[in-house]
Amino acid sequence: MRTIHSLNQDWTFIKAEHPADGAGVPVTLPHTWNAEDGQDGGDDYYRGKCWYLRDLDRPEATENSRVWLEFEGAAMTAEVYLNGEKLAEHAGGYSTFRVDLTDHLKDHNKLAVSVSNARSRTVYPQQADFTFYGGLYREVRLILVPETHFALGYHGGPGVKITPVVDLETRAATVMAEAWVEGPAHDAEVTFTLAGQTQTVPVADGCARADFTIENVHLWDGLNDPYLYTATASLSSGDAVSARFGCRKFEIDPQKGFLLNGRSYPLRGVSRHQDRKGAGNALTPAMMEEDMAIIKELGANTLRLAHYQHTQYFYDLCDENGLIVWAEIPYITMHMHDGRENTLSQMTELVVQNYNHPCIAVWGLSNEITAASAVNEELLENHRALNDLCHTLDTTRPTTMANVFMLDIDSPILEIPDVNSYNLYFGWYLGELEQNDEFFDEYHAKFPDRCIGFSEYGADANPAYQSPTPEKGDYTETYQCVYHEHMLKMIEARPWLWATHVWNLFDFGADGRDEGGKNGENQKGLVTFDRQLKKDAFYLYKAAWNHTEPFVHLCGSRYVDRTEEVTEIKVYSNQNEVSLYVDGKLFGTAQGHVVFSFQVPISGEHTIEARAEDCTSVMLVRKVAEPN
Ligand code: GCU
Fold first, then answer.
1. Does ligand 1 have an atom closer than 6 angstroms to the CB of 456?
2. pLDDT, tens digit (0-9, with 9 covering 90-100), for 75-87
3. For the chain: N or C, fewer Cβ within 10 A?
């Protein structure tokens, strides 16, 4: 049996290039040294090498146990020393890696881990609009396994790979179960169990495989019914692992868009970064569960987990809640001549470590990589290598990439991934809202056989800023609504957009930003960085996507003092009729879809109430004189 011990406690953190050069402070993992300075603006957060030290006693184990050390995330590079001997190093801040300590352990040991988020010419990300937090910011564990055990040393993977293929005609699924074994395995056998069936097969060349058929399969059906099976694999040595999996069919068609289990299922959702106000990227499970609850309230059916590999726990939450996920590596903004190896190693880890998650639909090769780099042969070759790597590691999922809006739609790089997507900011950074419609219509007409998605779009909004005359770039909550109302209409008219992801669900840490009245934050979120405030635009998408229960939302509750004689009162609802009451008297009733607008004369202090079905939303507005 394998035993897992948490190693989150009893660390000493030293913020210095050399352990002897700094004072140690006690910390508990997950930990980042940029929780404060990475979110306060100035682009001056600490980037460098730091140290985490702890004592480590040889764990109580039978004499033939192997002892592995597991890191779920060390940003951005790490070196692992035991009793002064360097045992391992890892380059990539978002993936799991492990170290076999067994042959180096004494009864009492000194464990030292250096972690660095210093600038690098070889490790991604180096240039992007988010804070590159440093630290041991995810779980650290000891894993004790028998001499013969399921692989722990293959790119941080789970040691078991489950490949379900659904036949919608026969309503059956074939499931290939594979497992890899480390240690003496001359006459070893693996017993696989799944869906009430068991097969025991010999290990050959370190690998075991069994094929199953599930008749009348219970489909993993997105938000409707994210049903999960569990496969287990066990060895006569006593080691055992399990992996949940989902039986579903994803298709992406140039004209029909995304299909789930044979039916049209346009992916409509948001992006998420893995940080939060005050915590940096050192999140607790409760924080992630809160994020998922907000996503469920929104009614999104897809998430782009940008711009890097997220924690296993969050992919698990997506499996359990039926979100369909775009997963990606941080090959972003600027290509580095010496970074090719790191793109391949980060992609290998992303795919090997997350292959079994039914939520994942596509592997993202890069994000806006031509923003600061030419489309030359070196860039194209790096993308071809990544694309081929994904197809080698995973024959079941397509690849994609998020392109910057300046990239010419005739660029050869668009021919590399299986499906494409663009990040467009017309109507925010430049140009007009209608250019988003024109862009996609032109692309779709020119390339009717290519799948195209909308991987990013958004507008910054500081909820403290309101305006009767909203305009792009003003950072008002008011304009963010105008922007997203247009985008929602544009998207709803184009079901062939296989996926659309609002940038971003949450405001996030970007220490290089000092605008819009908030330092250190990108404010394109539909929800504030601390998760405490859902901006009005959140309710626009909730009205469009969440039909589980009626609701109505008055926009502009933070716009109390108004100078205009006649003010617009906007209402979002998932019902098709809304009534507005002013000071208790019916002002008007409107039929519509999602957005309802009323022009209301104001002359003092007014109680405004919107009603739909038996839901209500109330706010106060006050007519004030023009500031002189
Ligand atoms: C880009 C980029 C994001 C960034 C966004 C923005 O599209 O991919 O990482 O945050 O623009 O400018 O808000």
1. yes
2. 999 999 999 999 9
3. C
